[in-house]
Predict the structure.
Amino acid sequence: MAAYDEIARLPIAQADAARLPVPDSSVAAVVSVLAHTDMPAYFAVLREVARVLRPGGVFVNLGVHPCFCGGFADRGDPAAVLVRPGYLDGHWTKESWTDQGIRAKVGATHRPLPALLNAFLDAGLTFDRCAETGAPLPIVLAVRAVNR
Ligand SMILES: C[S@@+](CC[C@H](N)C(=O)[O-])C[C@H]1O[C@@H](n2cnc3c(N)ncnc32)[C@H](O)[C@@H]1O
């Protein structure tokens, strides 16, 4: 019960993720869920994460797996993912293997895996753990990083 009361009193802010109303080096942890495909300026968001995290603070980024999703990855066959040309392009697209999902409606920014991970390092965030989930091939990539 005490833990619930503490959570209920956490402050909430609604803002541009690239301009957080949070002081420098002031928070112990930042979590980003399903955002790196949905914010074209996501690398600026990573720099903002590094700004608000205190040194040694932890950042967890969980999002669409860059290797198996995007306009180039066809999940029409439930037993396999057909990867077409496009992985290396790193672009915003509304292309999707299905016209039923959200991506065909709002689109997504695809970034190849090295572009995404190198942007962490460029922002001053050193990743120390990764995980991927989904079947039969990963859908989600999670990265934990520490602010230098
Ligand atoms: C795929 S949704 C994920 C939402 C939520 N994190 C979740 O897991 O359900 C991406 C969200 O990012 C928001 N968004 C896009 N650009 C943003 C920005 N610059 N700052 C804050 N939010 C943004 C969109 O409005 C959308 O709600």
Q: What stands out?
A: Residues 42-52 form the longest helix (11 residues). The chain has a mean pLDDT of 92.
